[in-house]
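Dear support,

Our group has been running a series of protein-ligand predictions, and this particular one with 2-oxoglutaric acid is the one our PI (initials K.S.) wants archived with full inputs and outputs. We had some confusion internally about which version of the output was final, so please treat the block below as the authoritative record. The input we submitted was:
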Amino acid sequence: MSRQGTVDVGHLVAGFGMDGHACVPGLATPEEVAALRPHVAAAARQRNPEPPPLESRDTYGKAFLQSMNVWRLDEAVRSFVWSPRFAAVAAALLEVDGVRLYHDQALFKEPGGGPTPWHQDQVYWPLDTDRTITMWMPLVDVPDEVGSMTFASGSHRQDVATFDISDGSEDAVSALVAERGLQLHTYGALRAGDATFHAGWTLHRAGPNPTSDVREVMTVIWYADGARATAPANRYQEADLRLWLKGTEPGELAAGPRNPLLWPADGA
Ligand SMILES: O=C(O)CCC(=O)C(=O)O
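Confirmed final output from the archive:
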């Protein structure tokens, strides 16, 4: 840690630019994560009070219970999601001066939950910048059998036809990865509080959960300050514009009340 309490990730910046992913072990302490966990779980239950049985869901639904913008439900979660320590890592890896919050999501892969098909996050985002990044932080130790995500290194720099998360994206991207000989990388088992970061256009997937424990993960997405909202290119982007960029019209600076500037932080 530096004197300002930020984590020095200078050694990861070049690799992130090349590969579109990085891992920061121990970004949150076990104590911080243990204190946060019940707050995220309660907020996630509020968002998904009665999930339908796993067997009745489609592939996307089997991959995880997805609870968005849980920071709005709980002060402890807000303080974690808005943490300048995490936002500073995001800004450093993106090599930008400032980042704003896009949204958070808790991603709980239940026991017996299926794989998360290959996809690119930015397909869903009506933003005019490719300086976007997701932090994926397990709130519990993730064992080898579950694992963290697999990334196609350098795919954020390639021209890839866009796919939404589905069986179709799994098949099409698997074929594309093989055709182009993209290198796959996973950081494997992670401890609670470790974090991976990936660029919005990096192709990634995750395996199923064959264990009897929930894979509890918290994610936060940021984009470079100064980005503008774009006209939605698909129905997902229409929903994102309304929900996560609420109050911002296409063409305007994406700087609405749900998108606070989290780095630089006040007084940093
Ligand atoms: O947690 C997962 O299974 C997938 C998460 C993911 O795709 C993401 O955070 O962008």
